[in-house]
TrEMBL record:
InterPro entries: Pectin_lyas_fold, Pectin_lyase_fold/virulence, RHGA/B-epi-like_pectate_lyase. Residues 122-243 form the Rhamnogalacturonase A/B/Epimerase-like pectate lyase domain. Residues 31-54 are annotated as: Disordered. The lineage of its organism: Eukaryota, Fungi, Dikarya, Ascomycota, Pezizomycotina. This is Glucan endo-1,3-beta-glucosidase BGN13.1.
Length: 244
């Protein structure tokens, strides 16, 4: 109790001393008279912080009391310096992703395939024999682009499809199909956004759907025996393609 009394008395004496000092400054004095500080880069004087405990010299100073410092730039110049030009309309003649080098060191690759860093992640269906002039049946050629593992095997029966992703590009044009296409796990099918391709069912088309979204086979181990289960069909996408 005695210690508490001594501390309270010391605080009261200290606060009283501060009040006496502040009373010596005229009430009409500017805020800077309490604690002069140089202006900072924003044009306002720096904040004035209390010199003692609450109730000390500067407890009544608020930011709005701080006067403006001289400015060397006008508002007009400030806004002019911050202005920028508007968006520029571009009209590219080809799709940028299709123009990339997908065979060099900067190509995409599958990091989880041991010792096979040349696995073809990017595929163009024209490179697999597909024709985009509306003639014949292009289902087999397009399906080959979906299935190949790039080394004579088939992603459909490899059992490691999740480690073998494929980005299949379909250039503009019309591709006639006599049978349905089957997506594979980890496969993105993307048409040219500037000239969306048309996948068109032939007059004698055989099948219930033009594109089957389920990959019904998960490899030789058949982790889930039933075909077409959601647990074994994922990581697929189809965009920029017109289906007729």
């Amino acid at each position: 109790m005695r210690s508490t009394f001594y501390i309270a008395a010391l605080v009261a004496a200290t606060t009283g001393a501060f009040i006496n000092i502040r009373d010596e400054i005229p009430s009409t004095a500017p805020a800077s008279a309490y604690f002069p500080t140089p202006p900072d880069a924003t044009g306002k004087s720096q904040p004035i912080f209390p010199a003692g405990p609450p109730g000390g010299l500067n407890d009544s100073v608020v930011p709005s009391d701080i006067p403006d410092a001289p400015r060397n730039i006008t508002l007009a110049n400030k806004f002019a310096a911050a202005s920028c030009s508007g968006p520029v309309t571009s009209s590219p003649s080809s799709y940028w992703m299709a123009q990339m080098d997908h065979t060099g060191d900067a190509r995409g690759y599958a990091p989880f395939i041991n010792d096979y860093y040349t696995f073809p992640v990017w595929r163009n269906v024209l490179d697999y024999g597909a024709l985009n002039d509306g003639s014949g049946d292009q289902a087999a050629a397009i399906q080959s682009a979906f299935n190949t593992d790039g080394r004579g095997g088939n992603r459909y029966s490899s059992g490691v499809v999740t480690a073998e992703p494929a980005h299949v590009f379909i250039p503009g044009g019309t591709y006639t199909l006599n049978t349905q296409l089957d997506l594979r796990i980890g496969t993105i099918i993307m048409g040219d956004p500037q000239d969306p391709p048309i996948l068109k069912a032939a007059a004698g088309f055989s099948g219930d759907t033009l594109i089957n979204g389920y990959d019904s086979h998960d490899g030789p181990n058949k982790l889930i025996a039933a075909a077409g289960q959601p647990e074994t069909s994922f990581l697929t996408a189809l965009r920029n393609v017109i289906i007729e």
